[in-house]
């Protein structure tokens, strides 16, 4: 009788274990398309209620222990959203449930998009965390967890770049007479992105010598309104066999103050070219054949940029979030760190495809993406679910067969009990 009772108890544990297995399979299949989801596998362990030997077997049945393989890498797939992010490595994005929360959860679900306020939030409602940076990508302040904040790509609305470098690739005609004056106009930008025009005047003072002066700027929009004051100075240019001479090759400072636009003062370095070369200013016979003596400008190079509005953001492999503007300017505004753990599979799963640290996982260590095994961040990509549907269906069939077998054991034991009871009658 005790053996029959034991067999029924063992069969019940089998039913419970296979039910747990079917539950994990069901959850895997339900999340086969969930971004960043890690599949759960049911491991089975045998139970023994007492000392077991060949002559005295006291089996206790089986128990299922479903465990999620969080460390498994999912396939990275491309998307059309630049703020989608995938991690190729062991790291996790730090996220919070609100912009004001300081309790971090960790996720691989990188389907981030800007909400109405510009905060990057994923489809599960978690806000991406990052360190604010300056325009060179250097973190502002320290890199402690307390310095993390919700990434807001609308924190900057537009930008402009003031001209700080200016160069011309041009030829001053060797046929010009001493005393001839030639001019050319170049466009520069103040710190507010307003375009101005300055006139460069070249006067030939000797056979191989020219003096250059710079006029006060005027607004490019009308070409007449004086918009600032240029500090008077003269740059002497000497040439040797048509090439710029060594003595005059240093960058020439152009200072402009009192911008009527309200912009900051400008300090512009004018580079006449490389000594001994004709890569900047040169003095050769004119290329034109119309008889006019004039400066021939091939190219003007200056690094200023007009005002540009924000239009998109991208993320580099090391986790720098760049703001991109329609004037061609891009610069980083956040550094997104990745959290790493000593035991990834010790994390506790919570709703929204995210995890919390436990004593088994250890606390998070924040590192720059691409270091310490954290993995690179790929913009415009997502990590797909690690669920293999074909494998899950195969496991489902196996679990169903095992469940049916355990049911048959219970039914057979019940019939044997009935036979014993009938025999006593």
TrEMBL record:
Q: Which InterPro entries match?
A: Falgellar_hook_FlgE_sf, Flag_bb_rod_N, Flagellar_FlgE/F/G, Flg_bb/hook_C_dom, FlgE/F/G-like, FlgE_D2, LlgE_F_G-like_D1
Q: Where is the Flagellar basal-body/hook protein C-terminal domain?
A: 379-422
The segment(s) forming the Flagellar hook protein FlgE/F/G-like D1 domain are: 86-142
Give me the Gene Ontology terms describing cellular component: bacterial-type flagellum basal body; bacterial-type flagellum hook; cytosol
Entry's localization field: Bacterial flagellum basal body
Q: Which Pfam families match?
A: Flg_bb_rod (PF00460), Flg_bbr_C (PF06429), FlgE_D2 (PF07559), LlgE_F_G_D1 (PF22692)
Write the record's keywords in alphabetical order, separated by commas: Bacterial flagellum, Cell projection, Cilium, Flagellum
Q: Which BP terms in the Gene Ontology apply to this protein? A: bacterial-type flagellum-dependent swarming motility
- Residue stretches making up the Flagellar hook protein FlgE D2 domain: 182-319
Q: Where is the Flagellar basal body rod protein N-terminal domain?
A: 8-38
Q: Which Gene3D superfamilies match?
A: Flagellar hook protein FlgE (2.60.98.20)
Stated role: A flexible structure which links the flagellar filament to the drive apparatus in the basal body.
Say which family it is in.
Belongs to the flagella basal body rod proteins family.
Identify this protein by name.
Answer: Flagellar hook protein FlgE
Query: Which species does this protein come from?
Result: Roseospira visakhapatnamensis
